[in-house]
Structures are given as structure tokens and as C-alpha cells.
């Protein structure tokens, strides 16, 4: 794993977004197209901002998937990740070749089957992800399922995860946060050729420390990234504040 530390979230997003753009351009040049994953949430604001600003990406050759969506939440809700991606990314770049968004308003089991068929046909070249306060990867809260081959799962959201969504301002109360979601599985995320992991802010510091300094363990879901051959982790001073000097040297 390659660790890149910046001073603040803005600088982190600039560096991570440029790195993601370079990878996408290279893949398009090599293969003629690129399959990508975009993450959502406040941790991705600056990375996506920079990605949008990057030039010479032929978005018409890009197929995009996303990581997770709440079950039963309408697309009109402020916390909807479909809404997030439409407003913060899709409406600001030229049309993509294809966009696969998770619909949490239909039968979730059938939706997982639909998504699995599509992503199996589009092996991921570049994945943009984050790490949760509880160390989750996508909505794979601890203890995460490291073994399933299913690309998408119906998952239960634990209390720390739901509190994070509330504290970020997406919901009026913790009780309003759905208790289930559809999430890309850990193994599916790790099948991506390249992973760009953007993790700013002090509130993520413990999750970052556990993910890097604990042994790979499903109690620390993002620790699995230690095993990925092409994962770059982008931190700022606050999110890296609990790491030992040996980790970041």
C-alpha cells in the first residue's frame, strides 16, 4: 500500500483526484475504455471535485458503478447516494458510456442479482473508495464478510455507521438512518486493478489507524486494503494523526 499524506482535505482531494484521472486516462489509452467505481459521502467531496476539473478524460468511454445505497430511501432524499452522484458528478461531466446506479427502492435481492450481472461483465480498472469511522469499506461494517463471491450484498448497518451518517448531516436524527443497505462486497472491491482511497478528517483517524496497524481482520474491514497490490491511501494531517511514525515513513 502506498500512503500519501497531505495537509488538509482540499489538498488531499487535489492529489487523489489527479491520480485517479491519470489512471483513468491511461486505461482508456490502453484498452479504449475504463470501468470505474465512485464512492460517495463527505470524504469524497474534494476528490470528486478535482476529478471533474481534470481535462482530457473521454467520459464517453467510461462505465461507472457505485458502492452502496440505502434500502427504501427515495432518490429525492438528501442522503441518497444516487442523488449525490447525479448532482455532484454526472451532471457536471460529459455523458458517460454507461452508469450503473444502485436502486434501493426495488426488491433488494433482485437488485443485487441485476448489479452482479453487470459488474461481472465490466471488471473494474479504477475504484475510488473511502474508510468509515468504524473502519468499514463501502457499507461492509465489522465483522465484514471477506469470503463471499457475491458482488453485491444486503447488509445491516451497525450503530457507529448510522451515527456517522447522522453526524455528517445527511439525516435529521439517527433513527432516520435506514438500518439496511445494498453494498458492494469486500471481495468485489478488491478485484479492482487500482484503488484510490481518500480519507480526510480527524474523525476518521481511529479507523485509519486500525486499518493500517491491525492485522488484516474482518473486525477492521478496510484492513483488507493492506493486501491489495495497487492501493494508494490518501490522508490529511488529521486523519493520519494517530498513526505511528513507522507506518507513515
* Straight-line N-to-C gap: 12 Å
Overall domain count: 1
Main sheet characteristics: 7 strands, parallel
Shape, per Cα inertia axes? globular
Q: Would you tell me the structural class of the helices and strands?
A: alpha/beta
What keyword list fits this structure?
249 residues; alpha/beta; Rossmann fold; three-stranded antiparallel sheet; 8 helices; globular
Plain-language structure description:
There is one protein chain. The protein has 249 residues and is α/β, with parallel strands linked by helices. The chain has a single domain (2-248), classed as Rossmann fold (3-Layer(aba) Sandwich). 32% of the residues lie in helices and 19% in strands. The chain has eight helices and ten strands. Strands 1-10-9-6-2-3-5 form a seven-stranded parallel sheet, sandwiched between helices. It has a three-stranded antiparallel sheet with strand order 4-8-7. Helix 7 (205-213) links the parallel strand 9 and strand 10.
Helices and strands in order:
Elements: E1 2-6, H1 9-31, E2 34-38, H2 45-53, E3 62-66, E4 68-70, H3 81-88, E5 98-100, H4 108-120, E6 126-129, E7 152-156, H5 159-167, E8 180-184, H6 186-190, E9 194-199, H7 205-213, E10 231-236, H8 245-248
Parallel strand pairs: 1-10, 2-3, 2-6, 3-5, 6-9, 9-10
Antiparallel strand pairs: 4-8, 7-8
